[in-house]
């Protein structure tokens, strides 16, 4: 019942905030924070070539939580309550939203954006750009430009004008034949090389071609034996190969966890563990990262399929930022 009341109050506030952002540049949720909008001009993406219409860029400021009466007065006729009762309704909903967000739960405002927390427990707002809140840009949507491809036009040969007996006529010159001038220039040098080889042939036949071997006979035999018999290799190489084979990863000794988040203080990590235990998880603090953060997990799992199913369920309804850790 508590979850139903929380969801209905959150959805009502999100709907009215979305309506007010179309007419106002700042909407404050008492006890929660303020949503401030600023003008963003049209722009084009340098890679995707998408032209985006002018819009309002919405930012969240946690310090703007003092009631200015805008949202409360807008909700009074909808709830049928007085100012004090409506303000208490908004403050109660804001407190419930803050508690869930600080516990790591994702909170969505339909057509406005999403509230999440980072490992330092700071609230971040991600705007939903499917709605354009700028009245001047009503009806303008993003478009993508397609590049225009042009084929290169063939070069036109200059005509030759011939004058004969006082009459001129246009005649196109015949196509030029490509000649490989470099090949013709290399022919004399190649002929000289063949002549030198021809003159040296008698001396090479008398002395024997086998005498031209510049490699000692012992080196090829040594390499051949080392390749055929691994026992002849140095002992250091064999030991390195054995150590590498022992470090091969095995799924039998792997440890699988679903991580809820990392926290800078032990107090915040304990608070997250208590919250998850109330939700039915066997949560605990796994370790401390090299950066000094306390890592909280939902639990450990024996196989990857069970952990993956649990991770998908957690991301759908509880924590979109959860991730899988395999040690």
Question: How would you describe what is shown here?
Answer:
With 327 residues, this protein is of the alpha+beta class. Among the domains are: 2-144, no CATH class; 251-326, Sporulation related repeat (Alpha-Beta Plaits), CATH 3.30.70. Helix content is 39%, strand content 23%. The chain is built from 8 helices and 15 strands. It has helices spanning 2-21, 70-79, 83-102, 181-207, 218-228, 235-246, 266-278, 304-317, and strands at 26-29, 33-40, 43-44, 50-52, 55-61, 107-109, 113-117, 123-127, 143-144, 160-164, 167-171, 256-263, 284-288, 294-301, 323-326. The chain has a 4-stranded antiparallel β-sheet with strand order 13-14-12-15. It has a 3-stranded antiparallel β-sheet with strand order 1-2-5. Strands 3-4-9 form a 3-stranded antiparallel β-sheet, with no helix packed on it. β3 (43-44) and β4 form a beta hairpin. α1 (2-21) crosses α3. The longest helix is centred in the middle third of the chain and has 27 residues, at 181-207. The two termini are 40 Å apart. Residues 163-169 and 205-249 have low confidence and may be disordered.
Instruction: Indicate the radius of gyration in whole angstroms.
Output: 39 Å
> What percentage of residues falls in helices of 4 or more residues?
25-40%
- With strands numbered from the N-terminus, the spatial order across the biggest sheet is 13-14-12-15
Major sheet attributes:
4 strands, antiparallel
**What letter string, H or E per element, gives the SSE order?**
HEEEEEHHEEEEEEHHHEHEEHE
């Amino acid at each position: 019942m508590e979850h139903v009341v929380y969801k209905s109050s959150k959805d009502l506030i999100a709907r009215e905030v979305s309506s007010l952002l179309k007419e106002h540049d700042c909407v404050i949720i008492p006890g929660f924070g303020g949503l401030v909008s600023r003008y963003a001009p049209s722009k084009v993406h340098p890679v995707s070539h998408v032209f985006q219409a002018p819009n309002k860029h919405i930012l969240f400021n946690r310090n703007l939580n003092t009631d200015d009466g805008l949202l409360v007065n807008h909700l009074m006729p909808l709830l049928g309550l007085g100012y004090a009762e409506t303000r208490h309704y908004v403050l109660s909903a804001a407190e419930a939203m803050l508690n869930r967000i600080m516990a790591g739960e994702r909170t969505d405002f339909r057509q406005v954006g999403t509230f999440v927390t980072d490992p330092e427990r700071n609230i971040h707002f991600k705007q939903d750009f499917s709605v354009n809140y700028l009245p001047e840009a009503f009806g303008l949507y993003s478009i993508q430009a397609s590049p225009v491809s042009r084929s290169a036009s063939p070069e036109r040969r200059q005509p030759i004008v011939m004058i004969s007996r006082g009459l001129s006529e246009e005649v196109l010159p015949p196509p030029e034949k490509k000649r490989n001038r470099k090949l013709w220039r290399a022919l004399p040098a190649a002929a000289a090389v063949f002549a030198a080889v021809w003159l040296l042939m008698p001396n090479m036949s008398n002395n024997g071609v086998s005498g031209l071997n510049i490699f000692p006979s012992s080196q090829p035999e040594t390499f051949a034996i080392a390749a055929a018999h691994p026992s002849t290799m140095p002992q250091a190489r064999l030991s390195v190969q054995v150590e590498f084979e022992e470090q091969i990863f095995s799924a039998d000794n792997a440890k699988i966890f679903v991580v809820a988040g990392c926290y800078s203080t032990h107090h915040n990590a304990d608070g997250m563990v208590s919250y998850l235990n109330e939700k039915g998880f066997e949560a605990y603090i796994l370790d401390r990262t090299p950066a000094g953060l306390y890592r909280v997990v939902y639990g450990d799992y024996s196989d990857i399929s069970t952990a993956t199913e649990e991770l998908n369920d957690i991301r759908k309804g509880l924590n979109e930022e959860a991730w899988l850790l395999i040690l």
